[in-house]
Amino acid sequence: MGIVLAVISGKGGVGKTTTTANVGLGIAMNGKKCVVVDFDIGQRNLDMILGLENRVVYDIIQVMDEEVGLKQALIKSKMDDNLYFLAASQTKDKTVLDSKKIKKLIDSLSDEFEFVILDAPAGIESGYEHTIEFADSAIIVVNPEVSSIRDADRAIGILDSKSQKVKDGSEVKKYLIINRINAEMVQSGEMLASEDILDILSIPLIGKIPEDKGIVDASNQGKPIILDKKSPAGQAYRRISTRLCGEIVDLMDIESVKSGFLTKIKGIFQ
Amino acid sequence: MFGWLKKKNSASTAKDRLTIAIMSDRDNNIFPFMDKMKEEIIEVVKKYIDVKAIEIKKEVDGDLEALSIDVKLKKNI
C-alpha cells in the first residue's frame, strides 16, 4: 500500500498546486512510482502546472462514476517515467464527491503507486474534507503571512477531527512547508521567521522555500521549477521530496541574507 | 534622522496577533460535539431546574486544562 499524502493550505494562492506538482515530480525523480491527483473539482489547475492540459481526456469524476477505467484516465508524464497524473473534472462541481467512491479510488491508486498525492481545493468546505478523508499524511503549505497561517491552523483542526485515520484512533502525519520566504524581509523584521511560524502552528517542518521569480516562468511553461537545478525554489523542492522519500537531508538556512550591496549600505547606518 | 532606516518590527506584531487569534479559534473548534453536548446537558438539568442557558468554556492554567460549565437559571430560586 502506497502513502496517501494530501497537500492542503486553507487559504488559496499560497502555492499548493505548485507544491503538489513539484513534490510529485521530485518523488518520481527519487525513483518512486507516484501519482498526483487534482481534487479541486471545477477548478482544474494542476494539469497546467504540469504542462499536461492538452493530454487530459478523462477526469477523476468519470473514474469514480465508473464511466472509464482508472488506467484510461491516468496520464503518464513525459518529464519522468515514474510520474502519473489524474485530472479534476472541470465541468462538474465538488458536490458530486462521495466518500465511498473516493475511498475505492484511493485504495486502487495506493495499490498501484508508492505515493498518491492529492491536491486539495482551497478553503475548508466539503471538497477539502473529502480530500483529507482518506489521507495518511498531509503537507500543509503556508506563506509567512497572517491570513495564510491562521487559515492553515483551521485546516489542520479539520484534518485532526474529520480524517478517517483520526476517527480510527490513529494519527495523520503532518509536514509543514513554508513557501515564499523573503530572507531580507525576515532579517529586517518585516516578515515572520520560520521559528515563529513553527511556534504558532506546532507541527514539524519539512522544508522552507525561498521566494523565487522563476516560479512564474515555470508555471508559464508548464515545467515545474524542480527541473531547474539552479533555481533556489527548485533546490528546496528537491530537498523536500528526498525527505519525503525517507532520507535525511539537512535543513538549509535560507533566511540569512546573502550580503548584497544594499544590505551593506544599510549596515553602515545601523 | 535616518528614521527610514530603522528596523520595522511588524513581524513580532504579526506573531502576537496570530497567537491570540489562533488560540481563540482553536477553543471554538476543539470540540465539534459541543453544541450537541450542551443540548443534552440542558435536557438533563431541565428535569430538575429551569435552565436559561449553558455555557461551556475551556480554561487553561499552566499545564492544567479544564472545562467549566456555567448553568444559567431562568429565575432565582
Describe this structure in words.
The complex is a heterodimer of chains A (270) and B (77). Helix content of chain A is 42%, strand content 16%. Chain A has 270 residues and is of the alpha/beta class. Chain A has a single domain (3-269), classed as Rossmann fold (3-Layer(aba) Sandwich). Chain A has an eight-stranded mixed sheet with strand order 3-4-2-5-1-6-7-8, with helices on both faces. In chain A, helix 1 crosses helix 12 (232-244). Chain B has helices at 10-29, 34-46, and strands at 51-61, 64-73. In chain B, strand 1 and strand 2 (64-73) form a beta hairpin. Chain B is elongated. The N and C termini of chain B lie far apart (69 Å). The mean pLDDT of chain B is 79. The chains are: A alpha/beta (270), B alpha+beta (77). Chain A binds chain B through residues 145-146, 149-150, 153-154, 157, 161, 186, 188-193, 196, 199-200, 266, 269-270, and chain B through 2, 5, 7-12, 14-15, 17-19, 21-22, 25-26, 29-30, 32.
Low-confidence stretches of chain A at least 5 residues in length (pLDDT < 50)? none
Low-confidence stretches of chain B: none
User: What is the 3D shape of chain B?
Assistant: elongated
CATH C-level of chain A: Alpha Beta
Number of helical stretches of at least 4 residues of chain A: 13
What is shown here, in short?
By secondary structure, chain A is α/β, with parallel strands linked by helices.
Keywords:
heterodimer, A: alpha/beta, B: 77 residues, alpha+beta, two-stranded antiparallel sheet, 27% strand
List the helices and strands and how they pair.
The complex is a heterodimer of chains A (270) and B (77).
Chain A: E1 3-8, H1 16-29, E2 34-38, H2 46-49, H3 60-64, H4 70-73, E3 75-76, E4 83-86, H5 99-112, E5 115-119, H6 126-133, E6 137-142, H7 146-162, H8 164-167, E7 173-181, H9 183-187, H10 194-201, E8 205-210, H11 214-221, H12 232-244, H13 261-269
Parallel strand pairs in A: 1-5, 1-6, 2-4, 2-5, 6-7, 7-8
Antiparallel strand pairs in A: 3-4
Helix pairs in contact in A: 1-12
Chain B: H1 10-29, H2 34-46, E1 51-61, E2 64-73
Antiparallel strand pairs in B: 1-2
